[in-house]
Automatic annotation (TrEMBL):
Matching SUPFAM superfamilies: P-loop containing nucleoside triphosphate hydrolases (SSF52540)
Subcellular location: Cell membrane
UniProt similarity note: Belongs to the ABC transporter superfamily.
Protein's organism: Saxibacter everestensis
Topological type in the membrane: Peripheral membrane protein
Main location: membrane
One Pfam family, short name: ABC_tran
Gene3D superfamilies: P-loop containing nucleotide triphosphate hydrolases
Keywords noted in UniProt: Antibiotic resistance, ATP-binding, Nucleotide-binding, Transport
Protein name in the entry: ABC transporter ATP-binding protein
GO terms of molecular function: ATP binding
PANTHER family in alphabetical order: ABC TRANSPORTER ATP-BINDING PROTEIN, ABC TRANSPORTER ATP-BINDING PROTEIN NATA
Amino acid sequence: MTALISASGLGVSIDGHVLLAPVSFDIDAGQVLAVTGSNGAGKTTLLRVLTGLSRPSEGTVTVAGNAPNERIPEFRGRLAALLGLPAFARNLTLREHMLLVAASWGQNFDVADERVDGLLHDFGIARLGARFPHELSSGQTQLFALALTLSRSFEVLLLDEPEQRLDSERLNMVSDLLRGLADNGTTIVMASHNQQLVDAVSDQVLSITEGVYGNRG
Protein backbone atom coordinates (compact mmCIF):
# COMPACT_ATOMS: atom_id res chain seq x y z
CA MET A 1 0.00 0.00 0.00
CA THR A 2 1.31 3.46 -0.92
CA ALA A 3 1.53 5.82 2.05
CA LEU A 4 -0.93 8.71 1.99
CA ILE A 5 1.77 11.09 3.26
CA SER A 6 5.42 10.34 2.61
CA ALA A 7 8.53 12.38 3.43
CA SER A 8 12.14 11.53 2.65
CA GLY A 9 14.99 13.67 3.94
CA LEU A 10 12.60 16.61 4.21
CA GLY A 11 14.30 19.72 5.57
CA VAL A 12 13.87 23.48 5.56
CA SER A 13 16.60 26.11 5.78
CA ILE A 14 16.55 29.84 5.13
CA ASP A 15 19.79 31.78 4.59
CA GLY A 16 21.78 29.03 6.21
CA HIS A 17 19.48 28.86 9.26
CA VAL A 18 17.97 25.42 9.80
CA LEU A 19 14.24 25.61 10.55
CA LEU A 20 13.67 21.86 10.19
CA ALA A 21 16.45 19.27 10.19
CA PRO A 22 15.84 16.48 7.63
CA VAL A 23 13.12 14.02 8.62
CA SER A 24 11.60 10.97 6.93
CA PHE A 25 8.28 9.23 7.60
CA ASP A 26 5.33 7.46 5.96
CA ILE A 27 1.72 7.69 7.09
CA ASP A 28 -1.10 5.49 5.81
CA ALA A 29 -4.74 6.58 5.63
CA GLY A 30 -6.39 6.55 9.03
CA GLN A 31 -3.17 6.88 10.99
CA VAL A 32 -2.14 9.58 13.43
CA LEU A 33 1.41 10.92 13.49
CA ALA A 34 2.36 12.94 16.58
CA VAL A 35 5.27 15.33 16.05
CA THR A 36 7.09 16.11 19.26
CA GLY A 37 10.12 18.18 20.19
CA SER A 38 11.18 21.37 21.91
CA ASN A 39 10.07 24.82 20.83
CA GLY A 40 12.00 25.86 17.75
CA ALA A 41 12.74 22.28 16.66
CA GLY A 42 10.63 22.68 13.52
CA LYS A 43 7.25 21.17 14.36
CA THR A 44 5.22 24.08 12.96
CA THR A 45 7.57 24.35 9.98
CA LEU A 46 6.84 20.73 9.13
CA LEU A 47 3.09 21.35 9.29
CA ARG A 48 3.47 24.42 7.08
CA VAL A 49 5.29 22.33 4.47
CA LEU A 50 2.52 19.72 4.55
CA THR A 51 -0.10 22.42 3.98
CA GLY A 52 1.86 23.90 1.08
CA LEU A 53 2.47 27.18 2.91
CA SER A 54 6.25 26.60 2.98
CA ARG A 55 8.56 24.77 0.60
CA PRO A 56 11.25 22.30 1.57
CA SER A 57 14.81 23.24 0.78
CA GLU A 58 15.86 19.61 0.65
CA GLY A 59 14.25 16.19 0.35
CA THR A 60 10.77 15.33 -0.87
CA VAL A 61 7.24 15.15 0.51
CA THR A 62 3.98 13.99 -1.06
CA VAL A 63 0.36 14.01 0.03
CA ALA A 64 -1.78 11.51 -1.89
CA GLY A 65 1.06 11.15 -4.39
CA ASN A 66 1.56 14.86 -5.11
CA ALA A 67 3.74 17.60 -3.68
CA PRO A 68 1.77 19.94 -1.39
CA ASN A 69 0.52 22.96 -3.32
CA GLU A 70 -2.13 25.22 -1.82
CA ARG A 71 -2.84 26.72 -5.25
CA ILE A 72 -4.36 23.46 -6.47
CA PRO A 73 -8.07 23.17 -5.52
CA GLU A 74 -7.94 19.38 -5.36
CA PHE A 75 -5.13 19.56 -2.82
CA ARG A 76 -6.90 22.18 -0.69
CA GLY A 77 -10.03 20.06 -0.77
CA ARG A 78 -8.21 17.11 0.79
CA LEU A 79 -6.68 18.94 3.71
CA ALA A 80 -7.88 20.93 6.73
CA ALA A 81 -5.45 22.60 9.11
CA LEU A 82 -5.38 24.54 12.35
CA LEU A 83 -2.01 26.24 12.75
CA GLY A 84 -2.77 28.80 15.41
CA LEU A 85 -6.12 30.46 16.02
CA PRO A 86 -7.85 31.57 12.81
CA ALA A 87 -9.12 35.09 12.23
CA PHE A 88 -12.68 35.41 13.49
CA ALA A 89 -15.32 37.83 12.24
CA ARG A 90 -16.55 39.88 15.18
CA ASN A 91 -20.11 40.14 13.84
CA LEU A 92 -20.65 36.42 13.13
CA THR A 93 -21.78 33.93 15.76
CA LEU A 94 -20.01 30.63 16.27
CA ARG A 95 -22.69 28.81 14.33
CA GLU A 96 -22.57 31.34 11.49
CA HIS A 97 -18.80 30.97 11.24
CA MET A 98 -19.12 27.22 10.93
CA LEU A 99 -21.94 27.36 8.40
CA LEU A 100 -19.92 29.79 6.30
CA VAL A 101 -16.93 27.45 6.26
CA ALA A 102 -19.07 24.43 5.45
CA ALA A 103 -20.89 26.23 2.63
CA SER A 104 -17.64 27.63 1.25
CA TRP A 105 -16.41 24.08 0.71
CA GLY A 106 -19.49 23.04 -1.23
CA GLN A 107 -21.81 21.50 1.35
CA ASN A 108 -25.49 22.17 0.77
CA PHE A 109 -27.38 23.88 3.56
CA ASP A 110 -29.06 20.78 5.03
CA VAL A 111 -25.79 18.84 5.19
CA ALA A 112 -23.90 21.83 6.57
CA ASP A 113 -26.60 22.52 9.15
CA GLU A 114 -26.51 18.95 10.43
CA ARG A 115 -22.70 18.85 10.46
CA VAL A 116 -22.44 22.10 12.41
CA ASP A 117 -24.99 21.02 15.00
CA GLY A 118 -23.14 17.72 15.45
CA LEU A 119 -19.78 19.41 15.92
CA LEU A 120 -21.10 21.96 18.40
CA HIS A 121 -22.55 19.08 20.40
CA ASP A 122 -19.45 16.89 20.14
CA PHE A 123 -17.19 19.69 21.37
CA GLY A 124 -19.54 20.54 24.23
CA ILE A 125 -20.26 24.07 23.03
CA ALA A 126 -23.78 23.69 21.63
CA ARG A 127 -25.11 26.20 24.14
CA LEU A 128 -22.62 28.76 22.80
CA GLY A 129 -23.66 28.58 19.15
CA ALA A 130 -25.37 31.97 19.21
CA ARG A 131 -22.44 33.74 20.91
CA PHE A 132 -19.68 35.71 19.24
CA PRO A 133 -16.05 34.54 19.39
CA HIS A 134 -14.96 37.49 21.56
CA GLU A 135 -17.41 36.35 24.25
CA LEU A 136 -15.65 33.01 24.79
CA SER A 137 -13.15 31.94 27.41
CA SER A 138 -9.73 30.77 26.24
CA GLY A 139 -10.69 27.10 26.51
CA GLN A 140 -13.97 27.66 24.69
CA THR A 141 -12.10 29.54 21.97
CA GLN A 142 -9.80 26.57 21.41
CA LEU A 143 -12.73 24.17 21.20
CA PHE A 144 -14.47 26.49 18.74
CA ALA A 145 -11.34 26.76 16.59
CA LEU A 146 -11.14 22.98 16.40
CA ALA A 147 -14.84 22.65 15.59
CA LEU A 148 -14.54 25.35 12.92
CA THR A 149 -11.63 23.49 11.32
CA LEU A 150 -13.72 20.31 11.16
CA SER A 151 -16.75 22.07 9.65
CA ARG A 152 -15.72 21.20 6.10
CA SER A 153 -14.96 17.85 4.48
CA PHE A 154 -11.34 16.64 4.41
CA GLU A 155 -9.16 13.56 4.26
CA VAL A 156 -6.09 14.92 6.04
CA LEU A 157 -6.11 16.98 9.24
CA LEU A 158 -3.10 18.99 10.43
CA LEU A 159 -3.10 20.40 13.96
CA ASP A 160 -0.52 22.52 15.77
CA GLU A 161 -0.74 21.89 19.52
CA PRO A 162 -4.50 21.22 19.70
CA GLU A 163 -4.15 20.83 23.47
CA GLN A 164 -3.55 24.54 24.02
CA ARG A 165 -5.84 26.23 26.57
CA LEU A 166 -7.64 22.94 27.38
CA ASP A 167 -8.15 21.55 30.87
CA SER A 168 -7.92 17.81 31.52
CA GLU A 169 -11.61 17.11 30.89
CA ARG A 170 -11.66 18.97 27.59
CA LEU A 171 -8.38 17.36 26.56
CA ASN A 172 -9.89 13.91 27.07
CA MET A 173 -12.87 14.91 24.93
CA VAL A 174 -10.66 16.19 22.11
CA SER A 175 -8.49 13.06 22.31
CA ASP A 176 -11.56 10.85 21.86
CA LEU A 177 -12.82 12.96 18.95
CA LEU A 178 -9.47 12.86 17.13
CA ARG A 179 -9.06 9.12 17.65
CA GLY A 180 -12.60 8.64 16.34
CA LEU A 181 -11.78 10.61 13.19
CA ALA A 182 -8.72 8.44 12.57
CA ASP A 183 -10.67 5.25 13.16
CA ASN A 184 -13.06 6.44 10.44
CA GLY A 185 -10.25 6.97 7.93
CA THR A 186 -8.94 10.49 8.53
CA THR A 187 -5.16 10.87 8.45
CA ILE A 188 -3.91 13.22 11.17
CA VAL A 189 -0.58 14.92 11.76
CA MET A 190 -0.41 16.86 15.00
CA ALA A 191 2.39 18.71 16.74
CA SER A 192 2.05 18.37 20.48
CA HIS A 193 3.84 18.93 23.78
CA ASN A 194 1.23 16.94 25.71
CA GLN A 195 2.20 13.35 26.41
CA GLN A 196 -1.35 12.46 27.46
CA LEU A 197 -2.69 13.47 24.05
CA VAL A 198 0.17 11.75 22.22
CA ASP A 199 -0.41 8.49 24.09
CA ALA A 200 -4.18 8.58 23.59
CA VAL A 201 -4.28 9.41 19.90
CA SER A 202 -1.10 8.61 17.98
CA ASP A 203 -0.09 5.53 16.01
CA GLN A 204 3.38 6.89 15.29
CA VAL A 205 5.65 9.47 16.86
CA LEU A 206 8.21 11.67 15.12
CA SER A 207 10.53 13.22 17.69
CA ILE A 208 12.34 16.02 15.91
CA THR A 209 14.56 16.87 18.86
CA GLU A 210 15.80 13.32 19.30
CA GLY A 211 15.60 12.35 15.63
CA VAL A 212 13.57 9.29 16.57
CA TYR A 213 10.65 7.99 14.54
CA GLY A 214 8.66 4.79 14.85
CA ASN A 215 5.43 2.88 15.47
CA ARG A 216 3.89 2.91 18.91
CA GLY A 217 3.62 -0.42 20.63
